[in-house]
Structures are given as C-alpha cells and as structure tokens.
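Issue 218. Parser rejects a valid record. Input:
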Amino acid sequence: MTTTLDPETTAVHTPRAFEPHHRTPGQAIAHVLRRIPTWITIAFLLLVTLYPLFWMVINSLKTNADFLSNPSYAFPEEWHWDNYVIAWETGNLATTISNSLIVTIPSLILIVLLGTAAGYALEILVFKGRAMVLLIFLAGIMIPGQMIVLPLFNAFFKLGINNSYLPMILIYTAAGLPLTVFMMATYFRAIPREIFEAATIDGASMTRSFFAIGFPMMRNAVITVAIVQFFLIWNDLLIALIFGGKRSLNTIQVGLLNFSGEYGAINYGPLFAAICITTFGILILYLFLNQRIMKGLAAGAVKG
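Output the parser choked on:
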C-alpha cells in the first residue's frame, strides 16, 4: 500500500514573524517622529558636555586683549598656539604633574590596600564590636577637612615633616579611607561567606584568603574606588596649597595659580592652555578606565 502526499497539505509555511515586513510611508514617518525626542535629548546632552571643552580650547588660543574685548564664545582673531608653550613653562607643568603623581599613586595604593583589608575584616571576619568600628569609619565622612587643617599642620610641624610629600600622602590616605571602607564592606557583603569558610576548611589562613580569594574577587570594586579617589586627590587644592610648603612641591592644581600676575592680573590664554593640557589628559585616562570598568562588570556578570 503506497501513500501519496498532497503537496498542498505538506507545503512549508513561513511563520508570520519571519516574513519580511515593509513599512508604509505613514509608518516610517511615525517611527521617525517617535525618535525625534530621543535625538533632541542626545543632542542637548552632547551640547552641554562638549561646549565647555570647546569654549576652553578656543579661549586657550587668544591673547588677553582678544579675550577681554570680544565675546568668550567667539573664535580668536589670531590663533596663538604658542600659549601652550608659555603654559608649560610658566606653570612649570612638568614638575607639578610629577608632584601630583608622586602624591597620588602612594595614596591610592594605601587607600586600596587598607580600605579593602578593613572591608574584608568588617564583613567576613566575626569579632565583637565590628559594627561600632564601621560606624567610627563612617563618622570620618562627616568631618569637614577644613576643621582639622590647623591641628594637622601643627602636628606635622612638630614632627619636622611639613616640607615634604609625606603630610599630603597621609592626609589623602586618611581622608579616602572612610568612603573606601564603607564601599568595600558593602561589596564584600554580596560575596557568599561559604567561599571563605571552604578556604578555611582547606587550611588557608586569613591573610591567604584575603589575597588569594577576597582581593581578586573585588577587582571591579577596587577599580571603581581607585578612580573615585584618584580624581578627588588629583583635583585637590586646599591640602596641597597648605601642606605643599615649598614651590618645588606644588601639585598641578597649585601650579595653575602661577598664572596670576602682579596685582591679580591673569594671563588668560596660557591659563586656559594649561587647563586644557591637564583636563584632556585626565579625560583620556577616565575614558580608558571607564571602559575597563564596564568590561569588568560585564565579565563578572556571566557565571559559568
């Protein structure tokens, strides 16, 4: 007995979801109109973000007379690229940038190591009074830095270390620890404690569990905290101005004050040029580190 198949009943039908869809002119216009508010919002955000950079660049190429006599948003009458050379020499940017790095890098290392270790101890280890210790760290966030400047200056002066990088490094480290400890403790709270308990059962010490398990698992948090603290330290003026002491210890923010001349006169072109040099360097660094954070978060979100 043979069975014949009816071609009409065995024809393969393409689901409607996979059929090519062609928009009518009215639908295309409606689709474009719905996206116009989004485009306007994006254009506004780009304008708000890029206009200050544009304004800063064009003013860095002007003379003082051009800056004071013409609108600040106007293009220069003459493009003075030598303002950048003057800015580099007058602001002593090579020295001030080096000083900022000398102060910032050790401070970041201390903040990350001590803050991560404190967060590990306050969340993973079990001991009496750890909640009170965390509250003491958090109390440091509420203390304005201006209130402790004079006592710290007297203490460093009596110790004989006021004309060095050490006071700035110690202050930046102490100022960055409260926020870092709070953030690290919060991140450690999300890690299952069973991981550390298993490491302890396998014979790992507290120090080995921290460096071999805890610290690598906090890589994304460490990068985030390091970026936040880097910009807080790099952009500081008050501490660097008071505790820098000698001109040779000036950081980048203090070096920008060198563009104020006699009787408060300011050479605007080189000043904006110096700001451009420092701003765009930090902006490039931020964009690079921001991509690293996003990649780290995306990789950490995938569990095998």
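Fixed in the parser; the record now loads. The chain has a mean pLDDT of 79.
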